[in-house]
Amino acid sequence: MLSAYVPKYREQTNTLTVYIEGDGLAWLSRSQASSDPTPRNPIGLELAIRHPEGAAVYLARPCQYVETGDVMDCRQKYWTNGRFAPEVIEASSQAISVLKQRLGATKLVLVGYSGGAAVAALVAARRNDVVRLVTVAGNLDHRAWTTMHHVPTLDESLNAADEWQALTTIPQRHFVGERDDVVGHVVADSYTARFPPRQRPKVVTIPKFDHVCCWVEQWDSIWGMNPH
Q1: Which of 30, 59, 138, 196, CA to CA, is 20 to 30 A from 7?
Q2: pTM
């Protein structure tokens, strides 16, 4: 089950930017999964609200922002080890197609925050209408990420880094906080290392930023660093 936020645009748009939320409150501790993954601090939503140009919409992750009665239908694996499962990526792509059709768009820019970056990359690898991929503090190689944190592998998930061949033709920009110890450069570098040297996506390190601070406050200027 996926929720979305769509502002009331009066006119159709040629290019639609879709912001995809992070993992949210997936875990209460290293050993206890949450019963509701809705984020307490929805960075992806805040970025979408502050989108500086053109039409933008927001897509939550499975079982975020759902009604109490619908939570019973949610499977915990979709925000734990199966957070990037094939069916999650397919459902996300279908939801994006509905949003695209609703606004009359023909092209997509996908922006993923944290775990939403993996969803954005995996969706982009399966479509032919994505003209740009942007990630913020993105988990683009979950194998590198689980190794870094010494936690169990996401064995029911697809890995964005494995899809590099399908992503070589899509312009990309990946923003990483200098002080981000949640994802950081280790994961971004593991992802870009998959690409041939001349095709490696650009990783931009933002000084003094961490996994949360200060993406929302500075989003307008950061967005200006994207290729056009």
Answers
A1: 138
A2: 0.95
Residue 98: inside a domain: yes
138 found inside a domain:
yes
Q: In the prediction, which pLDDT does 228 show?
A: 61
Domain extent for 91: 15-22+42-60+85-222
Q: Report pLDDT for 202.
A: 95
* pLDDT of the residue at 68: 63
CB 80 within 8 A of CB 135: no
**Confidence band (pLDDT; 50, 70, 90) for 70?**
low
Q: What is the mean pLDDT of residues 126-133?
A: 98
Q: Is 67 contained in some domain? A: no
Distance, in Å, from the CA atom of 202 to the CA atom of 216, rounded to the nearest integer, reads 21
Length of the chain: 228
Cα R_g (the chain), whole angstroms: 16
The residue type of 14 is N
Residue 69 pLDDT more than 60? no
Give the integer Cα–Cα distance in Å for 16 and 210. Answer: 28
CATH number, domain containing residue 207: 3.40.50.1820
Give me the number of domains the chain comprises: 1
Nearest-CA neighbor of 160 among 131, 126, 109?
126
Contacts of 79 (CB under 8 A, 6+ apart): 23, 24, 26, 33, 34, 37, 61, 62, 63
